[in-house]
From TrEMBL:
It catalyses: adenylyl-molybdopterin + molybdate = Mo-molybdopterin + AMP + H(+). Its EC number is 2.10.1.1. Its cofactor is Mg(2+). This is Molybdopterin molybdenumtransferase. Transmembrane segments: none annotated. The lineage of its organism: Bacteria, Pseudomonadati, Bacteroidota, Flavobacteriia, Flavobacteriales. Pfam families: MoCF_biosynth, MoeA_C, MoeA_N. Pathway: Cofactor biosynthesis; molybdopterin biosynthesis. It comes from Seonamhaeicola algicola. Gene3D superfamilies: MoaB/Mog-like domain, MoeA, C-terminal, domain IV, Molybdopterin biosynthesis moea protein, domain 2, Molybdopterin biosynthesis moea protein, domain 3.
Amino acid sequence: MVTIQEAITTVTTNTNKLVKPTVKPIEKANGYLLFEDILSPINMPPFRQSAMDGYALNLHDSLTYMVIDEVKAGDGHKPALKPGEAVRIFTGAPVPNTANAVIMQEKVVATNNKIELAHNIDLEQNIRPLGEQVKQGNVALKKGTKLTPAGIGYLLSLGITEVNVYKKPTIAIVTTGNELIEPGQTLTHGKIYESNSKMLLSALYSLKFYDITLYKVEDDYKQTVNTLKYAVNTHNLVLITGGISVGDYDFVGKALKEIQVEEVFYKVKQKPGKPLFFGKKENTAVFALPGNPAAALSCFYVYVYIALQKMMGFKTTNLPRVTAKSTSKFIKKGDRPQFLKAIYSNGNVAFLEGQNSSMLQTFALSNALVFIPETVTEVNIGDEVETILLPV
């Protein structure tokens, strides 16, 4: 049995970054890391651009200007201005080459074809220069940058339609157990609805992982071996729920050994989620999660999340942790560190009722896990506690 910190360190050091690139249409690249520097194919903006609605001026000594033309966004013509002349211009429109300042419309008095400025303005004022954001040929975004909606919009504004990104892991979710049936079927005596696979699928979807395959095996040793062998050989990450304990019909541990998955650790001194297995075969990471749903999801956020981030090449692999003030009392039984389902808000955190590892009702209301160390036996109102913020 290992400690929580030992387990976290071991998962981090034994999970490899995926190094294969894949080409993605830019609109489908959200959440991916860039595999290479992106060089800008154009200047952005591609022309001197008006920063506001107003008048583009060819400056002279007087505050009075003659308005000779109009330029709106998208116009391609290039009026020539003499000193003392102006054109009506709008935000985003190209500033004529012969104009050297733009004054906002609120700062002038317009009469017929003349305008009177309220004050003098500086050269190039309110003009976005050519290539202000990025110049043609320069690095627009560096290798390893995580693409966000803003990043995608930025690259699209440069005319880029596809990018080379680090490949996301292919993931297998394997559920075991004769007692499990699909929701929608008739619930007969001794059966329960299977929820772990879709729960983990939803958690992965929320983190923008989509290449996921679900497998279901009965409590049969040969079937367990064959399914796990295929999953391990064809995926980068395998998540197994149930069957890792030592009961007569728990075949997962024995099957993993037969297919030569190296056991890195088995069992973590924690509650919930003690019977957690982590192993690897070549570059495939394997987690055998507890069968109890709340325990499985807790282990997913504390350990599997780290492996996913490490595979993607992210430098920060843990979920964010903050120190929060407890608004609840709690007495810990036993000597194992514990993760408590909780609600965090504005620096305060409240523990929820129903912390049993089989209960998802409480987890459904929580947005955080509070970590209670081995040395702490009691938490009182006002105590500061370490709080893991869950993805929303």
